[in-house]
């Protein structure tokens, strides 16, 4: 069976991780993999998570199965965090999944099952796994312009022109905040415009929300998708708890399907549960329970929000620091747009060869398309990183 088998190309991000680990040079800088890091390079367990885990260790009496869709208390806590009450709960179907990746996959699976002919529109560029999952599922996809490499901001005209071709029943994927890989987010007016366009065309938005709280704050980062949720009859949301709760390996994820009415929501709930059942039956529970404990305990929630604010402020400080250091190192404003990006990522205008040169000659690691994770920077590495980038990206 496997004699002539060829594995798919390895994930380029994991390749960067491995090359960095094997690099023995002092002063190497890792702006590759998309995890949050402290100034001393750690990805620690949050204090709120530790406290919730301690409480669970004491109080949990069983590890028996929960439900195919996951814990209803987890659904409710996350729904309220993300939607803030803009959609009545009887219109919302929820499904706990293994991580945000699981949520993205099950949301696409739902669409494939309900409307196999739908075209899924993805922003260009997007998180590469969106495309890999869609291709793996054999779904039709098209891309729409999102990023303007000239300005380092949104390509509003291109986006509008491309989305004008969306047909009734198509699915349009949007990043809720902190766009991966560009850092270029939609402004409130963009959310409003796209909501209007999708309403006109009868298409459905799907929002991938992997970085809630990493942009401008919990409320601010959810504002765009709430606006859209309030304006349209249907919408899908794929949520990850990996970054904002630091629960990467516990695999915390959730699909929210906003439906036209309670009847449709009940049917979608059944289909979502069925999707979990025939994939892996019950979703992971520990991380979800930790999140629910934090969100429903006022003291733990306050602690979590404080820690999240600390992470966001560090990311933002490194982002502004890098923009300043690049201005100094390059003697120009050509990297000035970095300061306006949101979240951990920005896309540098680097060719694959320049990315390779940065690795080889400066021990500076980023993803092959020029994506950097600014959370990999520290006050000490800002200047050397900026000098390397300014030297190679002349
Ligand atoms: N969506 C986007 C845009 C992401 O960047 C990520 C994380 N890299 C995910 C979803 C999924 O994250 P996870 O499966 O680790 O929760």
Automatic annotation (TrEMBL):
Gene3D superfamilies: Aspartate Aminotransferase, domain 1, Type I PLP-dependent aspartate aminotransferase-like (Major domain). Residues 28-389 form the Aminotransferase class I/classII large domain. It holds the Pfam family Aminotran_1_2. It comes from the Bacteria. Its cofactor is pyridoxal 5'-phosphate. NCBIfam families: PRK09257.1. This is Aromatic amino acid aminotransferase apoenzyme. CDD domains: AAT_like. InterPro entries: Aminotransferase_I/II_large, Asp_trans, PyrdxlP-dep_Trfase, PyrdxlP-dep_Trfase_major, PyrdxlP-dep_Trfase_small. One of its GO terms (molecular function) is identical protein binding. Belongs to the class-I pyridoxal-phosphate-dependent aminotransferase family. GO terms for cellular component: cytosol.
């Amino acid at each position: 069976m496997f004699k002539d088998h060829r594995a798919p190309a390895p994930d380029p991000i994991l390749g960067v991780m491995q090359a960095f680990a094997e690099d023995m040079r002092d002063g190497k800088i890792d702006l590759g993999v998309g995890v949050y890091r402290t100034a001393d390079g750690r990805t620690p367990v949050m204090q709120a998570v530790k406290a919730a885990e301690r409480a669970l260790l004491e109080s949990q009496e069983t590890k028996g199965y929960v439900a195919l869709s996951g814990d209803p208390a987890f659904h409710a806590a996350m729904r309220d965090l993300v939607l803030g009450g803009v959609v009545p709960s009887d219109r919302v179907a929820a499904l706990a999944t293994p991580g945000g990746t699981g949520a993205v996959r099950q949301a696409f699976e739902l669409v494939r099952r309900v409307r196999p002919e739908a075209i899924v529109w993805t922003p260009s560029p997007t998180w590469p796994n969106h495309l890999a999952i869609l291709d793996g599922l054999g779904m039709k996809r098209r891309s729409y312009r999102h990023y303007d490499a000239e300005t380092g901001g949104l390509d509003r005209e291109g986006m509008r022109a491309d989305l004008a071709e969306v047909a009734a029943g198509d699915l349009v994927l949007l990043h809720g905040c902190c766009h991966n890989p560009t850092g270029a987010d939609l402004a409130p007016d963009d959310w409003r415009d796209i909501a209007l366009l999708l309403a006109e065309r009868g298409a459905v938005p799907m929002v991938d929300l992997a970085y809630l709280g990493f942009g401008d704050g919990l409320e601010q980062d959810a504002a765009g998708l709430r606006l859209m949720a309030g304006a349209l009859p249907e919408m899908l949301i794929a949520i990850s708890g990996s970054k904002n709760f630091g629960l990467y390996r516990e695999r915390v994820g959730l699909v929210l399907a906003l439906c036209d009415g309670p009847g449709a929501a009940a049917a979608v709930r059944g289909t979502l549960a069925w999707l979990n059942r025939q994939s892996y039956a019950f979703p992971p529970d520990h991380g979800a329970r930790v999140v629910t404990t934090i969100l429903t305990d006022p003291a733990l929630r306050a602690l979590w929000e404080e820690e999240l604010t600390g992470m966001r402020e560090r990311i933002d400080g490194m982002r502004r620091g890098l923009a300043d250091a690049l201005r100094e190192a390059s003697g120009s404003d050509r990297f000035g747009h970095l300061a306006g990006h949101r979240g951990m990522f920005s896309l540098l205008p680097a060719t694959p060869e320049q990315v390779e040169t940065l690795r080889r000659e400066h021990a500076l690691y980023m993803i092959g398309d020029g994506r950097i994770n600014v959370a990999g920077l520290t006050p000490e590495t800002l200047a050397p990183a900026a000098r390397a980038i300014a030297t190679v990206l002349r």
